[in-house]
Amino acid sequence: PRHVLRRQLTKAGELGFSCYVHPEIEFFLLKPGPEDGSVPVPVDNAGYFDQAVHDSALNFRRHAIDALEFMGISVEFS
């Protein structure tokens, strides 16, 4: 919870530390599927850091990164 973070940041500050924190944005790309309670299926088999040319999610990731950076959210890894 946020109050735990605030308390720890205060303690760290009292000890002379400066902390920088931010959330990690994470998502999964899934194929559209039946609404019968089936298990979701990924759009491809590529790993998160896989930069294979055949990665069908590559264009989406590029667009998502551009949109995040446009909003001032830096992207360290993609």
Automatic annotation (TrEMBL):
InterPro entries, per the entry: Gln_synth/guanido_kin_cat_dom, Gln_synth_cat_dom
Coiled coil regions in record: none
Molecular function terms from GO: glutamine synthetase activity
Occurrences of domain GS catalytic (ranges): 1-78
Family: Belongs to the glutamine synthetase family.
Domain of life, per lineage: Bacteria
Annotated signal sequence range: none
Protein's UniProt name: GS catalytic domain-containing protein
Naturally occurring in which organism (per UniProt): Streptococcus pneumoniae
TM regions (residue ranges): none
Pfam families: Gln-synt_C
Gene3D superfamilies documented for this protein: Glutamine synthetase/guanido kinase, catalytic domain
